[in-house]
């Protein structure tokens, strides 16, 4: 394994040339809407490469909205030697609000547009118009539109925005337009930025960029950060930083369970209030309200991770037993397996065989450092399965994950699962992908294995994959030394449907 703390094999890109990497990446839906896959993908495209792979990495980071990692790539002076990388760096700097530095690079890149791809050359012309207009020369937008058309730019929204900037009017965007960072910066010049429009239509690159720009309007930045969380673009820590940057009145933080005046900032208000609250019961109540809001908003798992450090401070037991299952979930998602066991013990009165023991089986699956015998808590799962507390789909997914991770699956669990038809839903890749995945993993080609695993699982990762693809991916990742990632994918396939108590 590499010694850089990435958890990736040494020389991860070995055996994969730029052409094959480009072919595999082109077939991926980026960013993946899976925390497990995003974690793995972020580490792969952040791993150093050489030659043409560097420009490919930069484009992949941009498409995925991983703007912080992209900034780290461009921070190395040697990466800006070629016109292509200089143009990509210019686009990045303008995206994250570093206008002066970006516009300086735009001028250099536009002067060598023949060395750029056709699409990037057109975007440099548009950005040149943006830079001049932002400096006070609105007529430059009209010239940029003409030049962009001549260069072959067919983006109707981009051309309309240039016309709107030149005419000092609100733009009339096409209904199907997706907003890139370049669209957004032109939109800013028109004064017609709508936070909900940004959240609904923003590309991954735009959402990731706005999170890094503290100068952006508060509501726009929070809307972008929450949309980025739904798309699993940013880390939970980055979402927490955006929430902390918001300002609330003392009475809003003193009574956070009463909805504030601005629904766009509701979850930010609850998070800031939970951080400042010192009374354990009040903090637990606020966290539950925050998690309920996040579940409805579509990024529950993200906020579980966000809430985990605060949940650690909640006393385990006494009057807060009602918080036990929430405590288990936050501890699981954050990898705090000691707290998982503590909350389970509290809920079961310190005895084995309690109503939450099935969560320990899930903890066993996720925890690479588990020191006890593997599968010790599967009897609790087996009993619940026999009682009909697992859906048919979840039973098959559980049997698939356990088998792929080399657990001894209890006979009754096998029997109950095999007594129902094998589900045929979920993402199943085209013919040949799973065979190629197995071959790549047997040859220890790590980057190729990861890219094929992403293709096999589909954008929703373990949760949305067909059980055949799910099992094959877990085995392939284990083969190349990525057992922790294999376990995260298995956990993700099960967590959403795992039985919860009625009170939870």
Outline the secondary-structure elements.
Elements: H1 18-26, H2 35-46, H3 53-64, H4 67-74, H5 83-95, H6 99-110, H7 118-134, H8 139-151, H9 156-167, H10 181-190, H11 195-201, H12 204-211, H13 218-230, H14 236-244, H15 250-254, H16 266-276, H17 280-297, H18 300-311, H19 324-334, H20 337-347, H21 357-366, H22 378-386, H23 392-404, H24 411-418, H25 433-442, H26 446-457, H27 467-479, H28 483-495
How would you characterize the overall build of this protein?
It is a single chain. The protein has 504 residues and is mostly helical. It has helices spanning 18-26, 35-46, 53-64, 67-74, 83-95, 99-110, 118-134, 139-151, 156-167, 181-190, 195-201, 204-211, 218-230, 236-244, 250-254, 266-276, 280-297, 300-311, 324-334, 337-347, 357-366, 378-386, 392-404, 411-418, 433-442, 446-457, 467-479, 483-495. Among the domains are: 1-50 and 356-504, no CATH class; 65-215. It has 28 helices and no strands. Helix 2 packs antiparallel against helix 26 and helix 12 (204-211) crosses helix 13. The two termini are 41 Å apart. The mean pLDDT is 89.
The helical percent reads 55-70%
Distance N terminus to C terminus? 41 Å
Percent of residues in beta strands: under 5%
Number of strands: 0
Biggest sheet statistics:
none
Q: Could you tell me the mean pLDDT?
A: 89
| Series of H and E elements | HHHHHHHHHHHHHHHHHHHHHHHHHHHH
Instruction: Compute the CA-based radius of gyration.
Output: 25 Å
Task: Count up the helices.
Answer: 28
Q: What ranges have pLDDT less than 50 throughout 5 or more consecutive residues? A: none
Shape: globular
Query: What structural category arises from helix and sheet content?
Result: mainly alpha
């Amino acid at each position: 394994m590499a010694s850089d703390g990435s958890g990736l094999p040494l020389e991860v890109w070995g055996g994969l040339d730029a052409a094959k990497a480009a072919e595999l990446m082109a077939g991926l839906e980026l960013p993946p809407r899976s925390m497990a896959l995003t974690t793995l993908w972020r580490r792969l495209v952040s791993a150093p490469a050489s030659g043409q792979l560097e420009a490919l990495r930069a484009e992949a980071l941009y498409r995925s909205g991983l703007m912080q990692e992209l900034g780290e790539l461009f921070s190395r002076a040697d990466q800006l030697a070629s016109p292509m990388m200089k143009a990509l760096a210019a686009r990045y700097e303008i995206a994250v609000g570093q206008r002066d530095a970006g516009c300086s690079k735009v001028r250099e890149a536009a002067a060598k547009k023949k060395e750029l791809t056709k699409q990037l050359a057109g975007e440099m012309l548009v950005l040149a118009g943006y830079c001049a207009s932002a400096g006070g020369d609105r007529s430059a937008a009209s010239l940029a539109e003409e030049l962009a058309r001549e260069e072959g730019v067919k983006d109707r929204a981009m051309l309309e925005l240039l016309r709107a900037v030149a005419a000092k009017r609100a733009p009339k965007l096409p209904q199907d337009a997706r907003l890139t960072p370049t669209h957004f910066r032109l939109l800013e010049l028109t004064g017609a930025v709508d936070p909900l429009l940004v959240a609904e239509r923003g590309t991954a690159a735009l959402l990731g960029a706005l999170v890094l720009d503290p100068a952006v309007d508060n509501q726009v930045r929070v809307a972008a950060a929450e949309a980025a969380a739904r798309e699993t673009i940013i880390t939970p820590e980055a979402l927490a930083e955006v929430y902390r940057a918001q300002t609330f009145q003392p009475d809003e933080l003193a009574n956070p369970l009463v909805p504030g005046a601005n629904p766009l900032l509701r979850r930010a208000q609850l998070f800031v209030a939970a951080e400042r609250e010192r009374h354990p019961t009040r903090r637990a109540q606020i966290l539950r309200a925050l998690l309920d809001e996040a579940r409805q908003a579509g990024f529950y798992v993200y906020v579980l991770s966000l809430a985990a450090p605060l949940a650690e401070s909640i006393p385990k037991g006494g009057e807060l037993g009602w918080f036990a299952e929430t405590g288990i979930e936050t501890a699981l998602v954050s990898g705090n397996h000691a707290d998982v066991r503590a909350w389970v013990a509290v809920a079961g009165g310190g005895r084995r065989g309690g109503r939450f023991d099935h969560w320990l089986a899930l903890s066993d699956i996720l925890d690479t450092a588990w020191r006890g015998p593997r599968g010790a808590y599967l009897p609790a799962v087996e009993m619940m399965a026999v009682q009909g507390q697992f859906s048919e789909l979840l039973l098959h997914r559980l049997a698939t994950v356990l088998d792929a991770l080399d657990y001894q699956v209890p006979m009754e669990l096998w029997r109950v699962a095999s007594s129902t038809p094998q589900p045929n839903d979920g993402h199943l890749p085209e013919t040949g992908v799973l065979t190629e995945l197995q071959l790549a993993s047997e040859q220890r080609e790590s980057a190729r294995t990861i890219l094929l695993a992403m293709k096999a699982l589909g954008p929703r990762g373990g949760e949305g994959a067909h059980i055949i693809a799910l099992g094959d991916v877990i085995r392939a990742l284990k083969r190349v030394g990525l057992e922790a990632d294999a376990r995260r994918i298995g956990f993700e396939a099960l967590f959403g449907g795992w039985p919860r108590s009625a009170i939870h």
